[in-house]
Design brief:
The protein contains 8 helices and 6 strands; from the N terminus they run βαβαβαβααβαβαα. By secondary structure, it is α/β, with parallel strands linked by helices. The chain has one domain: HUPs (Rossmann fold). The protein has a 6-stranded parallel sheet with strand order 3-2-1-4-5-6, sandwiched between helices. β1, α1 and β2 form a beta-alpha-beta unit. The radius of gyration is 17 Å and the shape is globular. Bound molecules: adenosine-5'-triphosphate and magnesium ion. The site of adenosine-5'-triphosphate has 19 residues, from α1, β4, α4 and α7.
Length: 221
């Protein structure tokens, strides 16, 4: 799997005899914002992950094709948002693969490439966890990795917990629940704000805002 530094997933970086713990943060990232970044960083710290790989979705199966910005824009914004953090990387694995992006396939490919040297943690916010049971092959996702279920404003802890219990009952794997600082930020709200001429400063990194303005994204919503 190629990432922005072309570093193989299993590259030696001091796992001291153990397996590397790799976080995988999937998303549309249209655009990436501080809610994504704080969730990834919280997971890294809480679960001692060696790095977090952001995986912009190629063609998100659950979002209408016309409504999503081109992959090149979403990839570049994700790189801009993470470039200064040595623990964060961006993978092109989904955007370079034709066809719909299924998380189960992505995790299988990443695991195949890394062999036994890594263990994977799929980081996901509460809304996505609640939807995961309707995704393609949720049992496969839960057996390929540890799923980290993060809190998100608008989704109660109780609902998240009940969903984790249900997943454990159905698939035999209990997602790891994680509380993250509540940031009521969403990409759809940022797109709406740009379209309506409202401010987006401090909702996302400055470089990403500059890119949005330069590329003229989200002006016609
Ligand atoms: P959209 O509004 O277009 O759906 P989004 O803000 O939900 O965008 P996504 O790219 O869909 O962003 O989300 C990627 C992942 O990040 C998902 O697992 C989602 O739950 C999580 N996530 C997004 N925003 C937050 C947030 N503010 N707090 C916690 N998790 C978040
Ligand atoms: Mg979303």
């Amino acid at each position: 799997m190629k990432n922005q530094l072309d570093r193989p997933v299993g590259a030696a970086e001091g796992a001291a005899g153990g397996r590397l713990r790799i976080g995988v943060m999937g998303g549309t990232f249209d655009p990436i914002h501080y809610g994504h970044l704080v969730t990834a960083e919280s997971a890294r710290v809480k679960f001692g992950l060696h790095r977090v790989i952001f995986v912009p979705a190629g063609r998100p199966p659950h979002k209408s094709a016309g409504g999503v910005s081109e992959a090149r824009h979403r990839y570049l914004m994700t790189v801009l948002a993470t470039i200064m953090d040595p623990n964060f990387e961006v993978s092109r694995i989904e955007i370079d693969r034709p066809g719909p992006s299924h998380t189960a396939d992505t995790l299988r490919l990443m695991r195949a490439e890394s062999g036994d040297s890594c263990e994977f943690y799929f980081i996901t916010g509460a809304d996505a966890v609640l939807e995961m049971m309707n995704w393609h092959d949720p049992g496969e996702i839960l057996s390929q990795c540890q799923v980290i279920a993060a809190t998100r404003p608008g989704y109660s802890r109780e609902r998240l917990h009940n969903c984790a219990v249900e997943m454990a009952r159905r698939f035999g794997h209990h997602p790891l629940e994680m509380e993250v600082p509540a940031l009521a930020i969403s990409s759809s709200d940022i797109r709406r704000r740009v379209g309506e001429g409202e401010a987006i400063r401090y909702l996302l990194p400055d470089a990403v805002e500059s890119y949005i303005r330069k590329a003229g994204l989200y002006t016609a919503v």
